[in-house]
Amino acid sequence: MKHSAGFVCFAGCGERYALDEVIYRCRACGALLDVEHDVEALRDRSAAAWMTTFERRWMRTEWPFGSGVWGKREWVYPGIADESIVSFAEGGSNLLWAERYGRSIGLRDLWVKQCGNSHTGSFKDLGMTVLVSAVREMIRRGRSVRAVACASTGDTSAALSAYCAAAGLPALVLLPKDKVSIAQLLQPLANGAMVFSLDTDFDGCMKVVQSLTEDGGIYLANSMNSLRIEGQKTVAVEIVQQFDWEVPDWIVVPGGNLGNVYALGKGLLLMRELGLISRLPRLCVAQAERANPLYRAFVAGFERYAPITAARTAASAIQIGAPVSIDRAVKMLRATNGVVEQATEDELADTAARADATGMYNCPHTAVALAAVEKLVKVGTIAPDERVVVVSTAHGLKFTEFKRAYHEGSLEGVTSRHANRPIELPADVDAVRRAIDARLGG
Fold it and tell me: Which position among 32, 41, 151, 184 has the lowest Cβ density within 10 Å, counted as fewest Cβ atoms?
């Protein structure tokens, strides 16, 4: 049976569209779209056969199976031509057992899915390979696309610019001025994107880019475009696959625009529907206290939601006050008996430092998720013997200024309890020995 997929209205009004249409919202009711797969067609293989297929393809040299995303192509974008695929061997990131850090917070089975170990240094590569490949497929089928555009807090712009550069497509990037790290600003510049630094926040950039992409000539690359979600959902499949198809008890993910939690839920639900797993983990979304609209809605039992103006936070990639995927995130949290937790600036910075001291090098957004885990362990929501996976969304090297400011003690509102500064000495071996003895004893 031929595998197929298409866009459907998320609100359930019945509208359907082809994947190669330039469309982001339902024309009938304005709701976001979702990619729906023909699950009956996917049942042409048993659960065991799908597991075998995914294991056989895992990070192979055969094109395009070097990618953790395209190794699951039937579940992502069935029918796309090989020549349309743009890939940097994304996915397949390591699942790190955070043994020492986990023990320090009362967990024996804590893992970190290192999605930042990717081509542009963040999990956004997983969705962007699908979106940019889809644009090439559109062009191959005769559609006209002048450029691909996104609003970004840094990581989306890096991924878009790299994949468009590889595809030979113009990329347009809208960034909030002075609200992304230097590394994140330099990535799209280096890849030749047209970069706009706008005097607003991410939500303001999002309004501008949605207007720019209304006529269809410029294609929208933000996560309201459901093609991105299809690539990001493979993280959930990878996690289960890396545990030999056993389901963890918890998956914890930082939340900004909230597409990622919906993507994880989609991957989990599809695995259950096709029989690869029999139960779901609980999902937790972790937000910075200064950008916490989902947390506020959760505290209100999801009876009330209101966008906010996000305040400046070290977790800049999730500094979003009006998340596009709020309804999708709530749906997945309800489906998985999930929770939402938040972290203050002091909590996320302190957690990052303690985790780094055990060998990790986390971005501030991952630190928000780790801080949330600590709080949930303390109140007993997460039990000591439960298996917990934290999704690390970006590489710590993108946030060198955050690390430096912490160890210099200059982060606003943060007490640098674990600062580690260089010891400045003359080039004298005895002076170095005295310093070593003072620290280690001797």
Answer: 41
